[in-house]
Design brief:
The chain has 16 helices and 16 strands. By secondary structure, the chain is α/β, with parallel strands linked by helices. It has two domains: 270 residues, tm_1862 like domain (pyruvate-formate lyase- activating enzyme, Alpha-Beta Horseshoe); 78 residues, no CATH class. A nine-stranded mixed sheet has the order 9-10-8-7-6-5-4-1-11, with helices on both faces. Helix 7 links the parallel strand 7 and strand 8.
């Protein structure tokens, strides 16, 4: 080994020590039967009849994905969470899924108790396929239901029906998947408060371990973005959207779910460990078209088209798995920590913030947040979880946690975060 190789290895280890060693990996599977009208993700449409078993496009992508994984340096810690997201990962063949997991294990190691999640769409898998995924190592399923009304599924361009949902739920029950999640979307065109309540109550009756509720965001480049103006009919009004958020908290917490993150609810012991890596601003690997990684203090998003991604992988191979990327400035790390950590119900440790960014920064944060504290959107919690009355105090307490109130603080989180970004960031 040359002196330069030794030096580069030491520098990588030093950066990994400072910023943390990744123990999570996200793998993007970008293929869908069709593109949903609200989707701006980097996906490729393959049609209803194509899967990893018969699609050369999917097969070629898996080959390139394996090449990226194989050349990525291992920083010294086995993976504790793996998340196959999409797109529709359940379009992969069982053999392709197993190949990817075996490669990840050889390259990085997979911890014995690792959480291995896979997103699936209703109607895209059968019992044998699902059992194959489980035999390969998957132990958590996240199913994109979105709504329990066929007319709403059609409105947003989903490829499945309510009948497909029930059939897929039955398959999950048959094979005994204990840790599965359902995704729902509020704020859809023509969606009423009653329909939203029906979807929430149906999800609770199914009793998955985890439920995610997302408010529709109209992105300009989507079909919805071309068809609808935010806040205009047939989209629900802002007041109705807020009522939907409050209703989700009421129905789901009454059904035994903990509201542990702005959009996520879990039965005790079933929070998504992988997503907590993001919210706690910890490092993670990412692989695939459009996937964003956070390694050695640097965030990097891969190209969003297959052709550009394939070209980038070839360049990565030629460079020996190393690419130049600037370190993240301290102010960006602070803003990311606040933006992500305030999504969690427990918020952020004040002691950790002070140790990492300094007490002067903490005082600056408190000065910015005082108006929102008085409005009841921001809370200071003690070690026992109860709120601490701050009055007109100029400083945060030595211990405790900074959090947003539920549901009002979560509802107005964008307003609070915009104020923090304005106060603490350059832009």
């Amino acid at each position: 080994m040359s002196a330069n190789q030794v030096l580069n290895g030491l520098l990588k280890y030093e950066k990994a020590t400072v910023f943390g060693i990744p123990s999570a990996a996200y793998i993007h599977i970008p293929f869908c039967r069709r593109r949903c009208y609200y989707c701006d993700f980097p996906v490729s449409v393959v049609g209803d009849g194509k899967t990893g078993n018969n699609s050369g496009t999917i097969q070629q992508y898996v080959e390139m994905l394996c090449q990226e994984i194989a050349v990525t340096p291992m920083l010294g810690r086995p993976l504790e969470t793996i998340f196959f997201g999409g797109g529709t990962p359940s379009l992969l063949s069982v053999e392709q899924l197993k190949r990817l997991l075996e490669l990840l294990d050889r390259r990085f190691g997979i911890a014995p108790n690792a959480e291995i999640s896979m997103e699936m769409d209703p109607g895209t898998f059968d019992c044998q396929q699902l059992q194959g995924y489980l035999d390969g190592g998957v132990n958590r399923i996240s199913m994109g239901v979105q709504a329990f009304q066929d007319e709403l599924l059609q409105v947003c361009g989903r490829s499945h029906t309510v009948g497909d949902i029930w059939a897929s739920v039955e398959l999950i029950r048959q094979v005994g998947v204990a840790d599965f999640s359902l995704d729902l979307i509020s704020g859809l065109p023509h969606q009423t408060l009653q329909q939203w309540q029906d979807s929430l109550e149906t999800a609770v009756a199914i009793a998955p371990a985890h439920i995610s509720t997302y408010d529709l965001i109209i992105e300009p480049v989507t079909a919805f973005g071309r068809q609808y103006q935010p806040g205009a009919q047939p989209l629900p009004t802002d007041d109705t959207a807020a009522a939907m958020y409050r209703l989700a908290k009421l129905v789901l917490t009454r059904g035994g779910y903990e509201h542990y993150e702005i959009s996520n609810y879990a039965q005790p012991g079933h929070q998504c460990r992988h997503n907590r890596v993001y919210w706690e601003n910890r490092p993670y690997y990412a692989f695939g078209m459009g996937a964003a990684s956070y390694v050695q203090g640097c965030r990097f998003t891969r190209p969003r088209t297959r052709r550009e991604y394939y070209e980038w992988v070839q360049q990565l191979i030629a460079a020996g798995g190393v690419w130049d990327s600037p370190q993240t400035p301290t102010d960006e790390v602070l803003l990311e920590t606040l933006m992500l950590g305030l999504r969690l119900a427990e918020g952020l440790s004040l002691l950790t913030l002070a140790q990492k960014f300094g007490e002067q920064t903490l005082e600056q944060i408190w000065l910015c947040l005082q108006p929102y504290y008085r409005q009841g959107w921001v809370e200071i919690a003690g070690e026992n979880g109860g709120t601490i009355s701050m009055g007109d105090a100029d400083k945060f307490p030595v211990a405790g946690r900074l959090r947003l109130s539920d549901p009002e603080g979560f509802l107005f989180s964008n307003t609070v975060l915009a104020a923090l970004f304005s106060e603490l960031g350059e832009d």
